[in-house]
Structures are given as C-alpha cells and as structure tokens.
Amino acid sequence: MRKPIIGLTMGDPAGIGSEVCVKALADPQISHIANCLIIGETNSIKYALKISKLPEIKINPIKKVSDAKFISGTIDVIDLENIKKVKMGRLSSACGKASIEYVEKAIDLAIEKKIDAIVTAPINKEAIQKAGFKYQGHTEILAERTKTKDFGMMFVADKFWLMLATTHIALKDVSQALDKKKILEKIKLAHKTMLKIRGKKPKIAVAGINPHAGEGGIFGREEIKFIEPAVEEAKKLGIDVKGPISPDAVFNLANSGKFDIVIAMYHDQGLIPLKLLSFNKSVNVTVGLPIIRTSVDHGTGFDIAGKGKASPDSMICAIKTAVKFARA
Fold it and tell me: How distant is the alpha carbon of residue 187 from its chain centre?
C-alpha cells in the first residue's frame, strides 16, 4: 500500500513545534506508515535535533516535494527561510508571520495534491494577530484559503470524538452565535465524517448549553429555541442523534460508550472534559475542507520551549490520524 505524504507545519518558531516534529519523525512507527516532510525552517529543525539529542538524524533541505528522500535517518524540510534569529519562548510578530506562511504553503501543496494531508504544530494566536492577521486560529485560515463555508472543529480521541458548535469566541457571545441551522450543520458534518472513517452510522449526542439542558426553559431557552429543533431535523434525515443532553452528564455517557461523538456548544464545554480524559492523545481535525488537516491538542509551550522537554505523543497521534483520514 502506498504511504501517504504528510506535510508537517512547524508552528511558531519560538515554541515547541519544531521539537515535537523531529521527535515524532524519529519514531520508527511513523516512517512505517507515512512519508513525512516538515514545512518551516532548517535552522529551527537543526536546533530541535540538538536539544532533542538526535544528532544521528540528518536534514535534507528542499524546495519542492519531489526532492524529498523519505528515507530513515533523514528529515526532509521545505525551508521557507522566513526567520533567521529566534528567541525561544518569546512572543514576536516575526514568528507569528512565519507560522502563518508555513500553513499557507502547506495548504497550497495539499490543494495541488503534492501532499495527501497536513499536520499542524501549534501557532500562537497573540503572535499572529501581532503580525497583522485577524484569524482566531488554524481553522479559520484553512477555511478562508480553501473557500470553505461549512466546516467544523472536531477532536478524535480513544473513548469518544468531539465536535464544537462554536470555536474561539467569548463565552458571552456563544448564544448569539448559535441557531438551528448551525447546529444542524455540525450534526451532519459529524455524521458524514464518522460514517466515512468508521464505516458505520455514529451515535451522536448533542449537549445543552445551560445547566440541566435548561430544565424546560427554567434556566434558559436556547435548548427549546434551536437545539431541540436541530436534533429533530437531523433525526428526520436518518441520523442517530439524541439531545439536548445535560452538559454535566453527556461526557460521562460518551466516555462509557453510549455515544461515539458529542456536539458541544462552546470551546471549554467540550475541551475541558476531553483533555482531562485524553490530553496528548486527542487530535484536532478540521472537517468539511477539500483537504485533510489534523493537529496536536496542545499549545506552543513557551514555558518549556528550547529545553528538550516537549512530548511528541500528540504529534504522533495527529500523524496517525492524518494517515487514517488520507486512506479513507
């Protein structure tokens, strides 16, 4: 079976992205399932190899994918030469700009079918906004550049998967950002993606937004106004979905195997339980795009950047998930 070509974006050069990339690519299980290359900076990769104590691994700087060697003991790097000096663990607009350009290059390669999937190391949202970009994160960059309107942020983990109805917005704005159409869209995306990857209809749970899912309108009417109608519409389409379910119960139900995926109404409602159960083992996937993108479930780690302490576990999981999606 042909190995898919996976492009790893290096993330913020001042963070742990380059370190988790090289550590992941040094793992034999990754070279066994995929041909990987890094999109970033040769100097950063050299430094990452040094602090990771991987001196036996060589770097092959390339300008195009066809120049990659994809051989054991060598890391192929598409060097964009965007930044010369980096202060590890320090926020900077230069690093923010560079991290966006790695992602843009990877998207172009994926659209041109030069690579089969993108795996992203973390970017720093403050750094990219300091550089003049207004994106909230990777998801919005990918959607804009691929001209995708219906997309979603999904997390893949061992016990259950997670889809977010809203992403990086203030808590006070969540209710105003939701409606029946948006929730129905996320249910359909979750159903379509899991059906394609797993080959069977998923059991979907939709979380309420209020305590006890509103308790019939006593604690809020969002469930009555748009969550219940979206769930009922999805059922008419033949989707196996239940909700709204009380947020303090739904994740325990999913973790015990009663549901395959939970649609959470806002970022922390879903990410807190998921990371508590599967930190460094869950993978962020942007679904609905014409290309495949997965990502680590952690941030830039400025506090440990340059110290050789970063774990590659989430990056390894993200690469494995990208391979699974590419083969599907």
Answer: 18
Q: What is the dihedral angle through the alpha carbons of 275, 280, 284, 285, rounded to the nearest 10 degrees? A: -130
Taken in order 36, 41, 42, 48, the sign of the CA dihedral is negative
pLDDT surpasses 80 at 313? yes
Q: Residue 85: how many CB atoms within 10 A of its CB?
A: 8
Reference 300, options 8, 7, 11, 9; nearest CA is 11
Instruction: Please state, in angstroms and rounded to a whole number, the distance separating the CA atoms of residues 99 and 93.
Output: 10
- Tokens at residue 286, please? 């942007």
3-state SS class at 168: coil
Residue 270 binned pLDDT confidence (cut-offs 50, 70, 90): very high
3-state class of 286 per DSSP?
A: strand
User: Measured at the alpha carbon of residue 226, what is the angle toward residues 259 and 264, in degrees to the nearest 5?
Assistant: 35
Domains (range + CATH), the chain: 1-148+289-328 (3.40.718.10), 153-281 (3.40.718.10)
- Which 8-state DSSP code applies to residue 227? I
Kindly list the distances between the CA atom of residue 85 and the CA atoms of 31, 91, 328, in Å, as whole numbers in the listed order.
30, 13, 40
- The 10s digit of each residue's pLDDT in 104-144 is 999 999 999 999 999 999 999 999 999 999 887 898 899 99
**CB 254, CB 205: distance < 8 Å:** yes
Nearest-Å Rg of the Cα atoms of the chain is 20
Q: Are 296 and 315 in contact (CB under 8 A)?
A: yes
pLDDT in tens, 218-266: 999 999 999 999 999 999 999 999 999 999 999 999 999 999 999 999 9
Is the model's pTM score more than 0.85?
A: yes
Residue 32 CA to residue 220 CA, distance in Å, equals 52
